[in-house]
Hints:
Elements lengths: L6 H9 L4 H21 L3 H10 L8 H10 L4 H4 L6 H12 L6 H8 L10 H12 L8 H8 L3 H18 L6 H13 L9
The protein binds 2'-deoxyguanosine-5'-diphosphate and fe (iii) ion (2 copies).
Amino acid sequence: MKVWSNREELLALVRAQMHDKRYTHTLGVADSARKLAVRYGADPEKAELAGYLHDYCKCWPVDKMFEILVRHDMPTDLLEGEKELWHAFAGAIVIQTDLGIMDPEILQAVRYHTTGRAGMTLLEKVVCVADYIEPNRNFPGVEQIRELAEKDLDAALALALGGTMQFLIEKQKTVFPLTLLAYNDLISRKGRVGGFNG
Ligand code: DGI
Ligand code: FE
Ligand code: FE
């Protein structure tokens, strides 16, 4: 277990796990997540912390992530699937074991930040959307997601996940089931009471 007792010490540990560009992205996600939390009524402190931690082991060797996932009995479809997804699931484990993060809301926000899932919590949505729209992000369609994120978090997330699935299909990559389930869940709530535009 690594020892930290304030934000600066935590950030130094986060900083040591990744290259410059990933760290800049990490700070951007924390800032965007805090703002989205304020806008939509999630806990801004938790959102910021989850942002700092969400890509904690993104730059780790895949073998190291794989070993952690196997040790924690992660499902076969994850282990045999796209390695890009591993950092989210391994990250949720590692920030608990190495940094002592125990808050299940934060752990889940990290675990599902890449794929999403059906029935995402507000904090999970905030971190997932922040990951797409933080200021250093630059991909086709990001502006539209940024604009939507100011007025409708679910709609922004559906647009973002839909774009990711389109990108994956174009590249003939697998769509992880949770990503599709997250998308379907958001789309099927659209227009219902409590759904998009509530
Ligand atoms: O870690 P970041 O780059 O900040 O962003 P992220 O955690 O959303 O990871 C993005 C990568 O994950 C990108 O290469 C696409 C990939 N990805 C996301 N959802 C899926 C996926 N890859 C596959 N194969 N299937 C998915 O459902
Ligand atoms: Fe990530
Ligand atoms: Fe990220």
